[in-house]
What we know:
2 domains, globular, seven-stranded mixed beta sheet, single chain
Amino acid sequence: MAPTAPRTHSAPTAPPPADRRADRSRLRTRVRWRASGVVAAALLLAACGTSTTSGSSDTEKAAASSTQEGLTEYPAGKRPTAPMLSGETITGDQLDLADLRGKVIVLNVWGSWCAPCRAEAPDLKKVSEETRDLGVRFVGINTRDNDAAAKAFERNYGITYPSFRDPDGKLLLGFDGRIPLSAVPSSVIIDRDGRIAARIIGRTTYTTLSELVKDLAAEKNGGGTDK
């Protein structure tokens, strides 16, 4: 029987230079796509942010209480004075919050481009309708938007309360940092004495907003509760 020839193992053949260049090109493409995704996500967060940072004083922060993420409530005796905003609405009318003194005021910062704003719009509409007879008034602050888009938003969601035009955030500066410019949506609830009773950074819900507003509507001027 003839001896079996020994098996030989050839070394793996390196891919031709053209194939190596193609592989490197595909890798660079994947890296660029991943980087683009990260940048897009960052831009989206910046456009519709929910920062909870605040310019409030340390004393004010100590006085405030938070029952859930994004919600800050102020005790009746330690509520900061709210700015009495005035200016043009998105429909071209003039609005002055001083004319609503003695009412509970819900200020909501929104933009038609903001997905959480669209999500909370039906809840805002419902609470505004349910509490109007309790002496509650809703006012929007439309920011970083154009009038046509803002009006279309209100038509689509049946919003009938007025909204200030604030395309560059100047009205928000009146809150001394209590509403970060990037915090869209956000809401501020003002008591009958013109003081900030609660602040919500981010999307609110029907339950949260309804409870806050109805509790404030039951207060007497000065922060007491009607019995």
